[in-house]
Every structure is written in C-alpha cells, then in structure tokens.
Specification:
111 residues; YefM-like fold; 4 helices
Length: 111
C-alpha cells in the first residue's frame, strides 16, 4: 500500500489510477499528514459494496430471528387468528424500517 499527499495525488492522479487498476495496491491519500481518503480499484469497491450488503442482510435476518423469538415468548397463548394479525402488523413494521434504512444507505452512497 502506497501513501501520497493530496498534492501528489492531484498531480499524479492518472498514474495512481493506473497503479491501482493494475493491481499494484491501494493508495492512501493524506492531507497535512493525516489519512483522508483511499484510492482503490473498481473491483475492490464492488467487493466492499457486496460485503456491506451481505452484512446488512445478516443483521436484518438476526433482528428478525430475535423478534420472532420475542413474539413467541410473549404470545404463547394467542389463538391462530390473533397470531396471524400480529404477524401482519410486525411484518408491516419491519418492511417500513428496512425501507427507511435502505433509503438512508442510498442517500449516504450518493450524498
């Protein structure tokens, strides 16, 4: 991994992109001696996005499983119709939460 100043990165951007795309490693860009950004290949970026999405899905699944267990524990005496109504209510709430999170994540990426 290479480290360059912001000025050097500005002056040598084309060459640095070539290095990164050619597999020579990532480039840390510093400003006043402090790391501020990293230049990575597009393939590495895609891998990062895929990993983030996988982690988000795993977290959502874990939250759903925990919620399912909470609902089971609290509602062991419900009849089938009441359980179905509760499931619909919880599903709607979870869809709303996940939609809001996806919008927030999309805003951060395009922000």
């Amino acid at each position: 991994m290479k480290t360059v100043s912001a000025t050097e990165a500005k002056n040598r951007l084309g060459a640095l992109i070539g290095d990164v795309a050619g597999g020579e490693g990532d480039v840390i860009i510093e400003n006043h001696g402090r790391p501020r950004a990293v230049l990575i290949s597009y393939d590495t970026y895609q891998e990062l996005l895929d990993a983030r999405e996988k982690q988000r899905r795993q977290e959502a699944l874990a939250a759903l499983r925990a919620l399912r267990e909470q609902v089971r524990a609290r509602n062991q005496d419900l009849d089938e119709a009441a359980a179905d109504a509760l499931i619909e209510e919880i599903g709607a709430e979870l869809r709303a939460r996940l939609s809001a999170r996806l919008r927030t994540d999309a805003t951060r990426r395009t922000g």
